[in-house]
Amino acid sequence: MRENVRIEDLQGGVRLVTLDRPEKKNALTGAMYDAMRGALEAADASDAVGAVVFAGVPGAFSAGNDIADFVTRAEKAFSEAPSLRFIRQLARTRTPLVAAVDGVAVGIGTTLTLHCDLVYASPAARFRMPFVELGLVPEAASSYLLPRRVGRLKATELLLLSEMFGADQAEALGLVNAVMPSDMLVEHAVAQATRLAALPRGALAASRALIRGDQAQVDAALQAEAEAFDRQLRTPEAQERFQAFLARAKPASA
Ligand code: COA
């Protein structure tokens, strides 16, 4: 079976994590979250890895959590959800993180980038966080991180009204470092990650922790969101939205 997450260790201490489920726009399954979490855990444990780059396929960084998985997950204990374990690891990873966003970046496809140290996007990038529209609440500490990045009013538009925003707007909001053509994107992200990986590791780790701020606040937001998310996931208003999306996804003959 083809792997939906490719993990390559490049020269210069960079680990490239490529999401590769193009037929579903890189919607994330439990197995994909587990592979991503494993890649981050192993990066932290390895002296050879100095930075991690997240990339997608042309036109799709990630369409977010697989919505079919939201339906089945409501039947299980949320604390064991691969998505939550990935998010917890993402927030505490000590290795610098770089994102290369081309195409759709929905839900965790956007919120993942809030944890990255550098974010690059192509003009085709389309960010969106439709949690509330889906009957859910923000995740990955986005309810804490986003207002601090873009201000509360803008964060409200993006998190409550689920407004889509493009690469230029993301750059203007300070959510993206630079916009560049798709064919240069991953190469540039890897080059920047290589620069990070070459820095003195102790100074880098200490500086990164200072820049990122209070880890305890991020952890607290993450936990509060996870509890609210779990409650919402099981509500009829959320399950109806998931079913509506899945019904839409069926062939016209169905
Ligand atoms: N979960 C499950 N399947 C998904 C998915 C998701 N999050 N996102 C896309 N897909 C599937 C579609 O159902 C479709 O499958 P099909 O070919 O079997 O019908 C396939 O991926 C391609 O998606 P499609 O909608 O045809 O592509 P598009 O370019 O027109 O639109 C998106 C792309 C991402 C804008 C759109 O698919 C979308 O809104 N997806 C849902 C995103 C979302 O709400 N994620 C959860 C956030 S919390």
From TrEMBL:
<dbReference type="InterPro" id="IPR029045">
    <property type="entry name" value="ClpP/crotonase-like_dom_sf"/>
</dbReference>
<dbReference type="Pfam" id="PF00378">
    <property type="entry name" value="ECH_1"/>
</dbReference>
<protein>
    <submittedName>
        <fullName>2,3-dehydroadipyl-CoA hydratase</fullName>
        <ecNumber>4.2.1.17</ecNumber>
    </submittedName>
</protein>
<dbReference type="GO" id="GO:0004300">
    <property type="term" value="F:enoyl-CoA hydratase activity"/>
</dbReference>
<keyword id="KW-0456">Lyase</keyword>
<dbReference type="GO" id="GO:0004165">
    <property type="term" value="F:delta(3)-delta(2)-enoyl-CoA isomerase activity"/>
</dbReference>
<keyword id="KW-0413">Isomerase</keyword>
<dbReference type="InterPro" id="IPR051053">
    <property type="entry name" value="ECH/Chromodomain_protein"/>
</dbReference>
<keyword id="KW-0576">Peroxisome</keyword>
<dbReference type="InterPro" id="IPR001753">
    <property type="entry name" value="Enoyl-CoA_hydra/iso"/>
</dbReference>
